[in-house]
Design brief:
With 240 residues, the protein is mainly α. It has one domain (40-237). It is built from nine helices and three strands. It has helices spanning 12-19, 40-73, 76-93, 95-103, 110-128, 130-135, 141-168, 173-202, 207-237; strands spanning 5-9, 27-29, 32-36. Strands 1-3-2 form a three-stranded antiparallel beta sheet. The longest helix has 34 residues, at 40-73. It is globular, with a radius of gyration of 19 Å. The two termini are 15 Å apart.
Amino acid sequence: MKGTGLRREFRDGNAGDLENSGGGEVAKQGRVLEYPFPDAAFAGRIRTCGALTMIGGALLTVGAILIDLGWLVDLRAIASLGNAIAAISGLGLLFLPIGLRASRLGGTGILATVGTASLVIGICLASIVDVPAILDPTDLEAGGAMGPLGLLLLSIGFLAWFEAIRRAGGLAGWRLYTFLAAGLWFPLTFPTIQLPLFVIPNGRPSFILLAGVLGMLQLMMGMVVRRRMAEKFHDRDSGR
């Protein structure tokens, strides 16, 4: 596929960020900005980031299910396997902030930077806490210390990307609000559902409701990144 231009609409608040990003020649026509998009090979790598994110999200969901199942039937081997899968899932989920940043769905401003950094650190912390529990699923010390911090950073990252993408006009509808749902999931559900129903009576949270749901939401984000890149190239080739 030859040609360099992709047509993309940005709201005025984020147009300056794109023009000052040094990403090649930019022409402004009203609210429509034309800028050279990376070639097909680079867009293919962004779609690969989306695919790896989908795999990571699916692994996180499966791991969360196994962790809760192992606790429910009192089989440590199942819980250990779940923790191992959840820890490995972080390797795929790290490609979510990488793909989002490279795709420029949220521009290149401060919100995109904060969102990327928060997601990278949050994913790393959330994955690290699963490592000690692989050997001993009852070891929740690491999770108690670093788990909430990692989840808080994830929430900040998702909310930052929601606002960055909303301002840039990179996504709309359910695709955009997937980021909002992921950002609000932990702060809204932990005090209202997890604490009274799981943490206080059982001494542990429900990993299906916590990590499992976030895994599914990140799987959807990976799918959104892949499809958005495909749509961009389809629009370019059809002359839109």
